Amino acid sequence: MGEGWTFAGEATQSGDSVTLIEGSSFCLSERGGDLVPGTPQGLFHRDTRILSVWQLRLDEEEVDPLTVIAQEPYEALFLGRARPRPGNSEATVLVERRRFVGAGMREDLVLRNLGNEAAACVLTLRVEADFADLFEVKEGRVAPRGQYGVDYGDGVLALSRQWRGESRGVRIVAEDAICSPDRLTFRAVVPPRGTWRASILVTPVIDGVETPTSFPLERPVEQAGPSVRTTEWRASGPRVKVGDESLALTLRRSCQDLGALRIFDPQRPDTPVVAAGAPWFMALFGRDSILTSLMALPLDPRLALSTAQVLARYQGVKTDPVTEEEPGKIPHELRFGVEASLSLGGTVYYGTIDATPLFVMLLGELCRWGVDPDAVRELLPHADRALEWVEKYGDRDGDGFVEYRRATDRGLANQGWKDSWDGVNGADGRLAEPPIALAEVQGYVYAAYTARALLAEQTGDPDGAARWREKARALKERFNERFWLPERGWYAEALDGEKRPVDALASNMGHCLWTGIVDTDKAPLVAERLLSPEMFSGWGVRTLATSMAAYNPMSYHNGSVWPHDSGIVAAGLMRYGFADHARRVAEAVLDAAAAFGGRLPELLCGFDRAEYAQPVPYPAACSPQAWASATPLYLLRVLLGAEVCVPHGVLRLDPHLPARFGALRLTDVPLGTARAAVTVTEDGEVHVTGLPSTLRLTQEPCPCNTWRTVT
Q: Coiled-coil segments, which residues (predicted)?
């Protein structure tokens, strides 16, 4: 039996690079550990590169890399071999660089002399800090800005930059090091068969305030904050045993990566949220973080609640065309770097059309799972402000649909999840002109209305519940009248600025199944289209059909396969009763995960499985990426037919597991305030223990009609 979900994480290794992440800090390096100038490598903290060069030399020679041993997302051991000593043909000095990333970096250096003579060594670390913003580094446009400063003394090197009224700095402390403006020098004599050690602390300084290090020298590493949080994360989540070793590996990696992608607000360190992805998106994103926490809710309900709470804190209060903030709007992206004001208009950017209804959907899901009812109730005013935004700002022309047009030339042109510049186009390839009303966004609004109705029921407001349900009913009627293309047999991807259907065959309508806005009589055609050879690649559902003019399997949004997108499609298919279709999609995505060693990337190319026996990676995909990491967990829930509605006292389990999975057992699954265990035998029998007395087990839809709408 394979074990899932409880797993020791590891750093990300890809090609010749290694990524270490912890909270708002991450480090990109070569496999030898160096940070090389002129590359995107570096140590980043809160969206600023605080080390741009970090190169180790022994006696002015490079160290030959041997291997990288990485057992945690924030830790790696780089092993290298010094060049042979003068007069020797064999190398005798082993170099260990143990790196810990978290609120900066700690690096422990060890020289091991494997020879029979003492080794005299001069060890140097070349150090530079350009304090470039993450956006500058990612886009390859780093240029010197502002006034740079350097200060050094015994064992201390401090670098800084003043620009645009803000200060960024780094303080590097190493006892026994000789410091100069651009390097640390150690002179060591290593006894025969002996060792020499030194430790270096790299600490960020923001506006003159030094950030407390996560790995202080006086505290054992296992007692450091990141270590403790990782241990608690593993101990608190559910556990799964499954007969399929490939699935077990994928679930382990998913849990590991979600734990690594958690970030913590320094002002509220007990409120973790999930960042969008490593390395460039280690920030809170409205859409990404909401969808990820929705998918991973059975793994860690606190993550979903914290995400809702933090997004509520940044909910829009005024109108600002530069940041696209509007009253009640949920933000798209939170950044900390100085450059953010140039790239996004501010550190909080609101250019998203879907995060606001998704926020209300998240609150509804928290209610269904019985997560901290008092905390959810406190967020109801934010839900109402979000729905006020939907109806006032989201639907500016009053046609009953939510649409977007960016406020200035600085914002994102497309503001749904397919947010590339060419992400919304017709069957003939022509780009849709704004304002654009996306099909899936109308589905999110529909689900937000039904979620708000449930929340009204729970707070003793039956009139409010009826009002929200009527809004949902009317929207569903309008949507099916305007978006359905009977001559094509699918839903339009969107309506353009002239209210004309954008008639591409795309995966967006799978999200509409997920939310329940699709009419029952149209669902069979939608299901068939999504699993047609045009849409289904064998590794998942393509974003755009092969028959469309803009189709390109190597594009970002026009024919690629996104695991989270396929996961939502599978959930929508299962909701409408198309279990075989849903299982095909789920198995395809899990097969892709296995081909990637258990870790799904952000996206993969849309080539057909019959064409290439392995999924073709998309070159610039984030890995790990939050909603891709959450997708396998969500697919397992979909295949189990697992839904819970604590307010109505029902737990539904209707498994449609592939035979190859064998028997499956889940323990410590959070259900309200209880923890349950679920067993599915190889024969498909379901056994549940630990079910609270307030819940009954069923295979029927919930009375609130949140789940399956087609039998």
A: none
